[in-house]
Predict the 3D structure of the following.
Amino acid sequence: MPSVSTMQGEAQPPCQVTCPIHQDVRGYIVAVARGEFSEASKLIMETNPLPSVCGMICAHPCETKCRRGQVDEPLSIMALKRFVVEHADHGSPKLQGESEQGQKVAIIGSGPSGLTAAHDLAKMGHKVTVFEHENAPGGALRSGIPKYRLPREVLQRDLEAIIALGVEIKTNTELGKDLTIGGLKNQGYRAILISTGLPLSRGLRVPGIELDGVLLALPFLREVNLDRQKIQVGKRVIVIGGGNVAIDVARSALRLGAGRVHMVCLEAREEMPSFPWEIEAALEEGVQIYCSKGPKSILGKDGQVTGLECMRCTAVFDAEGRFNPSFDKGEVSVIDGDMVIIAIGQASDLSFLKDSAIKLNEGGQLLLDADTLATSEEGIFASGEVATGPGSAVEAMANGRKAALSIARYLTGRPLAVAPPAEIELGELSPQIIDKIKRLPKQQMPALAVPERVQNFVQVELGYDRASAVREARRCLSCGLGTEYIEEECSTCLTCVRICPYGVPIITASGSVDIRVDQCQACGICVNECPAKAVILKQYQDEEVIERITTAIANASRSGVRPLTVVFWCSFSAYATGDFAEFVRTKCPSNIGILTIPCVTKIGIIHLLKAFELGADKVFVVGCPEEYCPYKESTSWARRKVDRAKKILDDVGLGAERLEMFNLPNVDIEQEEVLFKITQPAKQTQPDPLNG
Amino acid sequence: MIVGKQKPLPEIREMIADYGNILILGCGTCATVCFAGGEREVDILASSLGIAAKLEGKERVTTKHTVKRQCEWEFLDEIEEKVKQADAVLSLGCGVGVQAIAERFPEIPVLPGLDTLFMGMPVEEGVWVERCVGCGNCILNQTGGICPIARCPKGLINGPCGGYRDGKCEVDPTRDCAWVLIYERLKKMGRLDMLHTSQPLKDYSKMGHPRSITR
């Protein structure tokens, strides 16, 4: 089956446009919905060098923009990516030979940005060495993100795939100490990428900062995450800050045995910069969050922290929208605690530049060309948080990719700046269409119970199994991947206008029909009803179906066993009932050829007749339970096709009984039970005289 | 539009029995719109006849094509080569189309795959009804826009007859009496007075066949 990857030149779904690395989200979700997990994996790997990592900790802006969110809840795209990474057969990573134009590139820092640039440049044939100052690669992914969110074997999986491309990673090598920019140039590195992230924690200037028990977030997390030593946390830990790092600190402190963890942040709850799902998880685990409070002083006794004195924060930003908190100093409260961890922001460490000619801007940050990420020194580039300031991992990856493209152009003597391709985003769903779309509940992510979670650093979210992944994926509206309307073929019969359950086709002012691509739900009803064949489905065309029927019959006839049976089986239910591929391979009798189809609405009369023409003795159409189908009116439209085909079979003398259609009674039905419904009637079928 | 219906498959099979190489020709206008002979129906019919031929043990070649309109000779030029290769053309156009093909390609048999039925319109998805018989002498201005010739089985121009019951036709009690519809419509328009005048005898000579017009 051909890939349903991006169609060039067309409006793109918002998930893809929003994704900083422009993953073909729709493509891989549709593949999961069809049960084609390897295809999904291929699509993910095409643009994502850290798929396992992104399947667990991505900020997933795609979900925020998912148009299913306009109907009920957005798809769990990140969880589906994780499912694919964990369940698909990815094949072995391709080893990259050095290309003739391959040049030596040094990348400083092995965080998401550096790794992405390394991956991309290696794939282009360059010889990439990544230098990491810690004892293991991953940058902030390893030192900053707790293991309960990102198990280290997951990170390792992605690292190994990158190393397999020929990327060399040198750990325990610190810029400014073990190597210098000048030294790297002398070693023959033609280009250098600085992607050192934001390794420093910002501190606070408040009384009591010097007390024992006051820690900075990043050193704390580094100690915890790199297993350097067993950290002794206090019994009552106070975390200052409201961002993702603060949450990581708070949840880690709980797991290290803090009896109570309080978070204090300037922002009101809805202003907190942390991801909402992280806040929810922290609250579930018992972290108490005090919003709209700023630290006044850290209280202590005998040199040891005893609490935090706070004042009410009346506004975080000033009238110009700049960070400039104002306080009501009269409203003071005290939170008791024996440890204070400050997580109020991060900073870059550019000390390695002290003897370098690389220029800084007025703010003391690297002076960069925003379009090319080139520094003031030729051949030296910067990407990731050191270049952009704080952001998400996937944003850092996108920035690393941008730098890799600049570096590649630099290495081959091409102009650095290239305008990014213009992207057109599909519009929003219209309210009338939204009203008509079936509501389908989101598949809940199984997770460890809270008491189990807070005892250790075991991963909290357990991941989808096959059935829940397929069920979740079939919620995808396949935005923009529905029908294609061929105006010159159209007879303007208005059938599509009359039958579309969603009201997508409309009559234009000029009297023609417009099947609005941005509103189409890809159910396929109009496709098989259009008498002029003026509507086709982008992802399920006649030629492809007939080819699959031919293959299914050829495979089934090899068994020499009759009756030769063809089953059109809705892929949404097929894969939701378990490991369907395994079932087909091991349990399905060899005289049965199965074609999975993304809903029985997509079957045309011609497909059914073709199966008989090609020699099938018996044909079944197996649909989902009606209430489970993502589309509307699917059974009745499929039934019409089956009934007409049955009439034809009678008329030609083959017999209507050779064609049967049934819907599964429920989605939890065993595949063997369905098989029984197929094999029993088929046994009574005489061989098709067409097949000798 | 012209509304037709595909002939039953057994009848088509009988009609083509003597021919080994058949061009199934669809029509992209009226026959497509009424689901009788568009490109999709051509596909289905070709496949059905293919199965039938195999069952009969016959060698039959079917070629498929659909033109914009069979009733325009210019649109038929594109099938000239295919027609030459065929033993017969099975037309899925209306009777006009069949005759146009016969005139354009006088040497080849043309078989009607449809029964042409009426001039009408779809009143709901998949349901077409007759609305006009082409009487050549339209009186819709006097009958509230409802044609008694086409819609009254008796074609009464001064109705209703005595047979209607509860607004339904005595010929087919599932159908509304055209004259009741006319009455209701004129009532809505406040023009029941129009019923006070009897219609003169209709000049059916204007329906005499064959008719033609010249621009």
User: Anything to note?
Assistant: Chain B touches chain A through 25 residues (CB under 8 Å). Residues 133-207 of chain B form one domain.
